[in-house]
Design goal:
It is a single chain. Strands 1-3-2 form a three-stranded antiparallel sheet, with helices on one face. The longest helix is centred in the middle third of the chain and has 12 residues. It is an alpha+beta fold. It is globular and about 35 Å long. The protein has one domain: Translation Initiation Factor IF3, CATH 3.30.110. Helix content is 29%, strand content 20%. A hairpin with a 2-residue loop joins β2 and β3.
Length: 80
Amino acid sequence: MVGREGVSEAILAAVANAHAFEELIKVRILDTCDGDRKQVARELAEKSGSALVQVLGRTLLLYTPDPEDPQIKLPSQSSS
């Protein structure tokens, strides 16, 4: 959850830890977070090296493929 501190080192560490176990994670932006939710989502995605998949209300989805065995293929990554 992103709260009053915004995109902090602790949040980035938590995102990295979550991505160690899951490719797709949900992050909640609390009402106490300053700034526009979409801007916070873009900042978090950029700083964490994740792809911003969706912002729905105050919840966002971040994706980072597993380096060894990706389970999810984004349309731009699929070979046609």
